[in-house]
Write the structure tokens for this entry.
Amino acid sequence: MFKLFLSIKADFIKMKNTPFYWFHICVPIIGIVISLGWYSFAHKNDAVGTTGMYLQTISMFFPLLIGIICPMVIEQEAGAGRFKEMLGGFYGKQLSLISKILMLPFSGFISIVIAVGGFFIAFQFILHQNLLPATFYGYIILIIFGSQIFLYLFHVWLSFLWGPGASIGIGIFETLISALMHTGLGEGTWQWIPCGWGMRFSDYFFGKLYVLHQSLSKFPDFIQGVKNSIIFTIIFGIVLIIWFNYYEGRKEI
């Protein structure tokens, strides 16, 4: 456990001179400023609707952000010795991978806390328009974060196998699919498509389970989506660790 802690600490230090930290801090802040600025200047009165739209936007663009961040971390290893440190370094091959797949979601969680928590603070104490309790935002943070863990694992695998081009390209595609999954085209299929989980989970919690108290006729779909997200994430995480045991780097590097 102590070696894992040291490995995670080393991974964070490696990203010190990269855009990694700025990306996790500045992007959420920019999103907050744009959303609240639009609300203020557009003279909208639908505070609850604005909150829902903001949360949906975060969920929709998160796959793209993951697609950018994951290769940023993996390419640092590729450029610092062609993965030699990860494949045969002091901390061991498996421990180095586990360190990465813990570090990335943890950083994403902090970014979500900034994005959602910052929105709540600004909406509550600056614009004085917030109508939802702090507990709601706490639940939403956990929902959005939990629904994205599979994508972190998936994009780590893409980054190892094919590099940043594949990860970013798939991230763009996933963001587009995420938007489609929020429409009628996603009915009956979104539960099986990981990039659609974030928007659907936050939408069900926001609109059907918490705020608007709409019909719960589609609640079984929500439960199926939750089950799939847990099962898929666990299975892919195990497969990724086993696969990495045989990984020897990219041939083109």
